[in-house]
Q: What sequence folds into this?
């Protein structure tokens, strides 16, 4: 009791009394400058990453997403150059289904894509396999195989157009030396498609070869050494070690080449000359891209051209989905 009285009268407090909670003379209130700086610091940590990535998303929204959505809206309308849109629903798509020109362009796109993509990737694999070994002048050959890719489409197509010329082309001259009749490389369907495929193959083989080469150099050498100790030849090592190890890269090049074949435009247009937009005098090598251009900018039917663009997009998504499914099945087999 005496201790409590002394505490109330200003004496020494009891040892059991709780410590004083009076604020420190130099302490700041929670809403002072220190608290504001703390909030700004937290906001900076959260907002800075979004500020850095915002230019990409803004650019993509302006030049990628908006044109995609706007094209989809145009495909549902009847739009002429200089005219107002008129709602048609799915009429543009049903017109494509009934159009012989559309199915011809789709078939040409498929055939040109196959006869250009398959040899291109096979040749690229062979070149990459050769360049993966220690060859004299290996650096020169690596640069040389990339030279066609650096050549412009116009220059390459014009050169091959002269080579495949029906009257004075070097190809027909060489065929005549071995007893073959001249081939009409421009007006005939399959010769024209083969000529265009040669141009595509020549331009992109070296590019894919360097991609394969980069993947091959990442394969551990221990696998090759173990295969060599087991008596495997170089060909067996290529089939049993190299191909399985770079399978994801092969799938990537297949997808990219398929996308490029679906969008094939410059080579057939320049190869056909004055009738290049229509894919030759008989539409024998008109692709979907050429048909889309002709519908949009020659006949002025922007709605039909937009519908063709969306059909091309859906085809690419379908192909990518099938290839992703095949890749997943292969991974499950390897895992099992």
A:
């Amino acid at each position: 009791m005496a201790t409590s009285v002394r505490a109330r009268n200003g004496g020494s407090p009891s040892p059991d009394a709780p410590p004083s909670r009076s604020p420190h003379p130099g302490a700041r209130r929670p809403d002072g400058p220190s608290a504001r700086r703390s909030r700004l610091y937290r906001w900076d940590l959260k907002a800075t990453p979004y500020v850095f990535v915002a230019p990409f998303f803004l650019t993509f929204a302006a030049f990628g997403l908006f044109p995609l959505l706007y094209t989809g809206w145009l495909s549902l309308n009847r739009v002429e150059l200089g005219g107002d849109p008129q709602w048609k629903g799915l009429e543009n798509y049903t017109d494509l289904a009934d159009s012989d020109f559309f199915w011809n362009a789709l078939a040409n796109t498929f055939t040109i894509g196959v006869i250009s993509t398959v040899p291109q990737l096979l040749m690229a694999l062979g070149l990459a396999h050769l360049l993966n070994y220690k060859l004299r002048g290996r650096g020169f050959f690596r640069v040389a195989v990339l030279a066609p890719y650096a050549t412009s489409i116009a220059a390459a197509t014009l050169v091959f157009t002269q080579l495949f010329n029906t009257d004075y082309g070097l190809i027909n001259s060489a065929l005549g030396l071995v007893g073959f009749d001249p081939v009409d490389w421009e007006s005939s369907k399959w010769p024209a498609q083969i000529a265009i495929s040669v141009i595509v193959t020549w331009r992109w083989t070296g590019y894919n070869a360097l991609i394969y080469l980069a993947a091959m150099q990442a394969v551990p050498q221990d696998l090759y050494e173990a295969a060599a100790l087991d008596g495997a030849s170089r060909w067996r090592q290529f089939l049993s070690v190299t191909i399985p190890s770079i399978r994801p890269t092969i799938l990537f090049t297949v997808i990219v080449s398929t996308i490029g074949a679906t969008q094939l435009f410059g080579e057939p247009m320049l190869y056909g000359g004055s009738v290049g937009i229509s894919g030759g005098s008989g539409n024998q090598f008109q692709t979907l891209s050429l048909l889309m251009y002709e519908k949009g900018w020659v006949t002025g039917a922007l709605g039909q051209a937009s519908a063709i663009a969306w059909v091309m997009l859906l085809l690419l998504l379908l192909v990518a989905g099938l290839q992703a499914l095949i890749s997943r099945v292969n991974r499950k087999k390897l895992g099992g």
Remarks:
- The longest strand covers residues 77-78.
- Residues 33-74 form the longest helix (42 residues).
- Strands lie at 77-78, 86-87.
